[in-house]
Amino acid sequence: MSSRLRTVAIAISVVGIAIAGYLTYVHYAGISPVCEIAHGCEKVQTSEWSKVAGVPVALLGLLGYVGILAALLVPGETAMTAAAGLAVVGAGFSAYLTYREVFTIEAICIWCVASAILMLILAVLTVARLAVHEPEPRLSAARAAQ
């Protein structure tokens, strides 16, 4: 079950990297994102909420997805915990940004919504994977010396 959750999480991370990578490219290229459905992408991308301490949130998302993917590719409980932690923080930050889109900016970026949904799914998958993971038995120092 854990390996299946990992495989799905890896695939979702790759899609997240593609979306956040596209939005990062759009930001630095100074072009408008393709936004056929909601038509609010440019307003969101150029709002005061599109940066944190001068860093575009799209770049933060890209780094977050890359970090999650890297943690998913590394074996061990520490990496599983890191993936879950990054995904939960990412989902919380995405929820905050979605709140800002709806109630402050009054525009919806479909790319941002898609990313928020992916991050929420990643949070659920990585936490579930951590919950079903059976820890490896630890060897006592005396037994390991044998």
Structure, explained:
It is a single chain. By secondary structure, this protein is mostly helical. The protein has a single domain (2-133), classed as de novo design (two linked rop proteins) (Up-down Bundle). The chain is 73% helix and 3% strand. It has 6 helices and 2 strands; from the N terminus they run ααββαααα. It has helices spanning 2-29, 41-45, 57-73, 77-105, 110-132, 141-145; strands at 51-52, 55-56. A two-stranded antiparallel sheet has the order 1-2. A hairpin with a 2-residue loop joins strand 1 (51-52) and strand 2 (55-56). It is elongated, with a radius of gyration of 18 Å. 30% of the residues are buried. The model has no long low-confidence stretch (mean pLDDT 91).
Strands, helices and their partners?
Elements: H1 2-29, H2 41-45, E1 51-52, E2 55-56, H3 57-73, H4 77-105, H5 110-132, H6 141-145
Antiparallel strand pairs: 1-2
Helix pairs in contact: 1-3, 1-5, 3-4, 4-5
